[in-house]
Specification:
Number of domains: 2
Strand content: 5-15%
CATH class of the largest domain: Alpha Beta
Largest sheet: 5 strands, mixed
Helix content: 25-40%
CATH architecture of the largest domain: Alpha-Beta Complex
Number of strands: 14
CATH topology of the largest domain: Creatine Amidinohydrolase
Radius of gyration: 28 Å
Structural class: alpha+beta
Strand order of the largest sheet: 6-5-4-1-7
Length: 550
Amino acid sequence: MAHPPTTPTDAARSHAAEPVTSEPQAKPATHDTAPPPALLDFMVREWKPASTRLPPKLRHAAAFAARRRALSKLFPGETLLVPTGHEKVRANDTYYRFRPGTDFYYLTGNLEPDCVLMMAPEAGGGHRDMLFVEPNPGKSDSTFFTDRIKGELWVGPRLGVPQSRARFDVHEARPLSELAGALSALKGPATRAVRVLRGMSPLVDSALEETPRDREMAIALSEMRLLKDAQEVRELSAAIASTKRGFEDVIAGLRTARHEREVEGIFNLRARLEGNDIGYNTIAAAGEHACILHWVKNEGAVRPGTLLLLDAGVEAHSLYTADITRTLPVSGRFSREQRQVYELVHAAQAAAFDQVRPGRDFLEPNRVAMKVLAEGLERLGILEDAAEALADQNQFYKRYSLHNVSHMLGLDVRLRTGARRDVQVRQAQAGHGPHRRARPLLPDRRSHRAGEIPWHRRPHRGRRGGHREGSAEPVRRHPERGVGRRRLDGEGVEIARQADTRLTVAAGRRYGPRRMRKLTSLMRMRAEAMLMRGPGGRPVAGECCRRVRR
C-alpha cells in the first residue's frame, strides 16, 4: 500500500515534545531508529474515534472546591499559583513513579504531573479557578507513539483539557502551552499582587519574581491542612486500617523470614495492593539496626532472639498516609530486659495518649511521656536522677529518646513542616491530625562480652531494646487494659494488648502453617476478642485462646 509523502508538519510530529520539568531529563533512547514517513502516516490513520463523553465529576470534588474557597478568602484580590511538580529522573532514561505535589492535590484532587492551578481574582470578589493541564490529542498526532515521556502508547493517555474541567469541577481548564502567556500577563506594575508556591516548577518560578508573599501562602496552606474535614478523617482511617493489615502480614511472615528485605517486601506488597504506595521508606530494622533512627537500607539478617522494629505506613490512593511502629521479638518471646523496656515505653505512650484532647497544648503529650520514660530509666538504673535528666538545661533523657513523641499526619507523613512554630505548639483543636509516638534508644545486653559492664550501664553503645510504640489511629482509650499477655499452647506465641487498641503478635517458629493461618485469621477480626469483656468484667480473650488450641 502506497503512502503519500510526509509534510513538514508531519515530520515535526515525529520528534518528542519538549517536556516541562524541574529535573534533568532522561536521555533519549539510542537503541530506537527514526520512524520513516510512511510509518508516521500509517500509525495515525484508521483508529477508533475518541469518545466525546466527559468523565464524571471527581468524588468529593466539593471538598476540594471548599478548600480553594477557603484559600481564596485568605488572599482576596491576589493571583495565586500552585504547581504540582514534574516527573523526576531515576537513572538514565527511566523516571520515578510520579506523586503530585501535596498542596496542589489538596486543592484539586488531580494526580497528573506538570499541571498548574491558577486562581485569578474576580471583580465581584472571590477567585476563578483555572487548571493548566496536558492536552490529550489521542492518536491523531504521531507523538502518541514517538514521545517516550508523554506519548499515550508509552505511558498511557492524559485526561485532556475539557475532560479535566469536568472531572475536577474547576471554572476553566487550559492547555499547558498557554501557561507561559498567562504568566507573562501577570508581570508589570499595573497587575495585581501574585503569590506562587515555589520550588515545584522552574517555569513558574523563573517567570515571576519571588516575594515574601510567596512564603506567606505556603505557610497558610500548611496550616490549612492541619485541620481535617470529615472526608480526610475517613481517608486517614482507611490508610491506618490498610497499614495494620500490612503489619499482620509481616507477623505471619516472621516464621520464615531471614532478612530485613523480606520484611520490607511483605509490607510493601500490601501498600501497593491496597494503596498508592508506601507513605515513606519502610524501616525494617532487626538487631542492632533498630538503634538507627531512619534505617532504610534493610540489608541485615533477622536472627532468633533479637527484636524486629518495623516502622511503616501505607499511602492510600487518596495520598493520605498512616505511620505505625511496632517492635516484635523474632523468636516469639521478649527477654527479661526487652520486656522491661517494652512495658516502660508502653506506659509512656499511654500517658501521652491521655493528654491528646482538644484544648491541650500540642507538646503536653511529649512532656508527660518523657517524664514517664525518665522515671522508668531511673528505676532500671540507667539514669541516676530523673529530675535532673528532665531539667530544661540538661534534657539527658534525650540520649535514649532523641526526638519528641508525636507529629501530625495527613497527606504528608509529617504534616506540620511548613506551619509556623507558634501554630505548631498552640492548643490542639478538634479535627487536627492524630499524634504519633516516641522511641527509646537502649543497647542489647548480648552485644557485650561476659565480664564487661552490664548492658544497662552502657547505654551509649548498642541499640534500641524496647518498643518504639506508635499508631496513627485516633485515640480510643480502654483504661482497664494495660499490657496483658497470654501464652497460647505454651509455645512461643505472645499477645501484647496495646492501650491504643492494637495487637502485637509475635509467633514462635514451632507453629505449623495451619495453626499460624488460624491464629492470624483470628487476630484479624475487627472486633477483636481482646477488646471485649463478658459478664462480670471477665475478659473474653480466653475463648480466643481455646479456639487456637483446638
